[in-house]
Specification:
With 450 residues, this protein is mainly beta. The protein has a 23-stranded parallel sheet that branches. Strands 4-7-10-14-16-19-22-25-28-32-36-39-41 form a 13-stranded parallel sheet, with no helix packed on it. The N and C termini lie far apart (129 Å). β11 and β12 form a beta hairpin. It is built from 2 helices and 42 strands.
Length: 450
């Protein structure tokens, strides 16, 4: 029998390539086999959403908003990880129904300007209206359902609007879970929130905005359950106004945040005169916040508290500056300050702590350290009530020298007394910097008249 010659190897390879090309050409002619082409397409958004809709990078590479649109009362928009949404100038998004934008650490969702050289205020931002679907949490505070944003970046918004709050992200009389969201380069505030219900704003990065990093207004009626709002784990830095500004009649916990290098002070918390809220400020790093040279009569470079009941505990408050109270300034408030590190804060009056119109204020078990060894006032009591400031470490080896660091009744009979003895001679906390041990000359009453 005569054997046939086998097909040479190179010829077989050429035939295989030709077969694959033929299959690809056939498939491209079939409907629904244009996945790669569809992903590369920019989808234009110019109509409101009234039903259930899902956006995904597997559907469209970029969603381009050419006209402001609304998620209507009956609408629900789900945005999947990795989706990119870009907004033309003066456009934005208003949520009256439900928005669930849930990215992942590896594939965040992006809301940004469509401009090749984006600038703050290119678009107006994302706003949740009062009739949007609120977030629901379980008893442990875990997300159940409703509107939410998680692992999202919002940039270059905050553009001018006629009636609505101007911010990259605004919530008006609604509650939305905001977690692991980066809010940056807004022409106004980073986040603006007004809510009658408890809030959870956690693990966000809020930086380089032209207004406050975060403005939060919370309201509580007297019969509401005692559920506090939570502001936890955020990094708030380099904003042109307050880092965190809270207008509170609801109890609020501000914890585990890093608040630094904000231009109009680190935190401002303002309560209502007749309904003071309980404000807990704990385990935060509040550092290097300041006021510009044009701002006079400023108070509280690190924390400015007004008309509330404060627990300020286990914070690092360092390197902040103000006209009065470089570290902390409280006005018409009660405050318990414990286990804090005050270091290298600066002010024209009271580098570390300034108290005005105090009631029931104690400052105990803290490290209160000067920026150097020249005697400077670290604590001033500008109120009628006496303050318990015992058991603090002042960075001095001579207890009698502590008097030189305090401005109170012995210096001016119009001021309140500060009881500071006994004092500590070793730091309370494990120091985050090397403490300076100072030796001061014995105290002489200022002006020599007392």
């Amino acid at each position: 029998m005569q054997l046939r010659h086998p097909i040479p190897r190179n010829t077989r390879q050429l035939l295989l390539i030709a077969l694959l090309l033929a299959v690809q050409t056939l498939c491209s002619a079939l409907p629904g086999v244009h996945a790669q082409e569809a992903i590369a397409t920019s989808c234009t958004i110019s109509e409101d959403i009234t039903g259930d809709e899902t956006w995904s990078p597997e559907i469209c590479a970029t969603y381009l908003v050419t006209r402001s649109f609304t998620i209507g009362f009956d609408g629900r928009l789900t945005i999947l990880p990795g989706t990119i949404v870009r907004f033309d100038p003066k456009t934005g998004l208003v949520v009256e129904g439900m928005l669930v934008a849930r990215g992942t650490p590896e594939r965040p969702i992006t809301f940004d300007s469509s401009q090749p050289d984006p600038r703050p205020g290119d678009w107006t931002g994302v706003r949740f209206a009062s009739n949007s679907v609120d977030t629901r949490f379980d008893d442990a505070g875990n997300y159940l359902d409703g509107s939410m944003m998680q692992y999202v970046t919002i940039a270059h918004g905050g553009g001018e609007q006629l009636l609505d709050p101007e911010a990259n992200l605004a919530l008006t009389s609604t509650t939305v879970y905001i977690d692991h969201v980066t809010v940056t380069n807004s022409a106004t505030a980073g986040i603006h929130v007004e809510s009658d219900d408890p809030l959870r704003i956690t693990n966000n990065v809020i930086t380089d905005n032209e207004g406050s990093g975060m403005y939060v207004s919370t309201n509580k009626l007297y019969f509401d359950p005692p559920i506090p709002s939570i502001i936890d784990g955020n990094t708030v830095s380099r904003n042109k106004s307050n880092g965190i500004w809270v207008l509170a009649s609801r109890d609020t916990v501000i914890s585990h945040n890093t608040v630094e290098e904000n231009e109009y002070g680190g935190m401002k918390v303002d309560g209502l005169p007749l309904f003071p809220a309980y404000i807990t400020i704990t385990n935060n790093l509040i550092a290097d916040n300041f006021f510009s040279e044009d701002d006079r009569l400023t108070c509280g470079g690190g924390i400015h508290g007004l008309r509330s009941i404060f627990s300020i505990e286990s914070n690092i408050i360092t390197g902040n500056t103000a006209d009065t109270g470089g570290g902390v300034c409280t006005t018409s408030s009660a405050a318990q300050m414990h286990d804090n590190l005050f270091a290298e804060n600066r002010a024209g009056n009271a580098n570390s702590i300034y108290i005005a119109d105090a009631f029931d204020t104690t400052i105990t078990g803290n490290d209160i350290l000067s920026a150097g060894c020249m005697p400077q006032v670290e604590l001033a009591n500008d109120s009628n009530a006496a303050i318990d400031a015992t058991d603090n470490y002042w960075g001095v080896l001579d207890g009698s020298a502590v008097e030189a660091l305090i401005l109170h009744f012995t210096d001016d009979r119009d001021l309140g007394l500060v009881r500071y003895a006994p004092v500590r001679y070793a730091p309370v906390r494990e120091q985050q910097h090397t403490p300076v041990h100072c030796v001061f000359v014995p105290h002489v009453a200022r002006g020599g008249e007392h």
